[in-house]
């Protein structure tokens, strides 16, 4: 770290209008350090509005030097030497046009570029990687996943698949989406979303909950697909957004039209044991 000269900092900040971040970079220290020094030296920190007023082009640009700044500087592709329209920092910070970047990348991964492994070498790498998946390793992996509630045990897989299908939505469910969910689903560009069971099918299966309860509209929520994947890979407890008790209460309080409402109520009244199932600790 260079010695921080406060007079110089004052000049950089107030006259050359560099940002604290840019000054920190020059001195090789953190922004916090610079801000502390500035405060000690009585330099007033610009507000956000001031910082963005007037733009930072030409002489206002902190990197302005000899009648030039980064914006005016010309960049050429380092491979084919054509003039680049925009500054492109591609591949290890080198400027390349799109075409040359593509060629460079393909070379990098086919053994004639940076990763210069011979054919035999690559064969060995491949073999050693796949050798990891021994029967013992797979067995151990399955056990761990079963124990953590991520995978359904092998001998229960078939009944689970039937249950899984039975608990699937019987309608599109858009009718029952909340306003926020509809806004999310209809936003542009069209997001990747999924209809998720608040009380998960995994928990429903393990606890022997009739699938008809799980496909009730109160159990449906629209979430992003990424979130859905995250949920699927998480352990049992966090798979559920609500407890079974909350689900049952919500069904009982449901006032809108639903073809299976009567049937659901009948099951809830018959199966008192459902209320005794302990929900995951949420
Ligand atoms: Zn090029």
Uncertain residue segments: none
Number of strands: 2
**Which structural class best describes the helix and strand composition?**
mainly alpha
How much strand content do the residues show? Answer: under 5%
The bound ligands are: zinc ion
Distance between the termini: 48 Å
Number of helices: 15
What characteristics describe this protein?
extended; 282 residues; 2 strands; 3 domains; mainly alpha; two-stranded antiparallel ribbon; binds zinc ion; 15 helices
Tell me what you see in this structure:
There is one protein chain. The chain is 46% helix and 4% strand. It has helices at 6-15, 20-27, 31-40, 48-52, 98-108, 119-131, 135-147, 157-166, 179-185, 201-206, 211-214, 225-233, 236-239, 244-252, 261-270; strands at 193-197, 220-224. It has a two-stranded antiparallel sheet with strand order 1-2. The longest helix is centred in the middle third of the chain and has 13 residues, at 119-131. The radius of gyration is 31 Å and the shape is extended. The protein binds zinc ion. Residues 77, 79-80, 82, 96-97, 99-100 line the site of zinc ion (ZN).
Short description:
The protein is mostly helical and 282 residues long. The chain contains 15 helices and two strands.
Secondary structure: elements and pairs:
Elements (H helix, E strand, L loop, with lengths): L5 H10 L4 H8 L3 H10 L7 H5 L45 H11 L10 H13 L3 H13 L9 H10 L12 H7 L7 E5 L3 H6 L4 H4 L5 E5 H9 L2 H4 L4 H9 L8 H10 L12
Antiparallel strand pairs: 1-2
Helix pairs in contact: 2-3
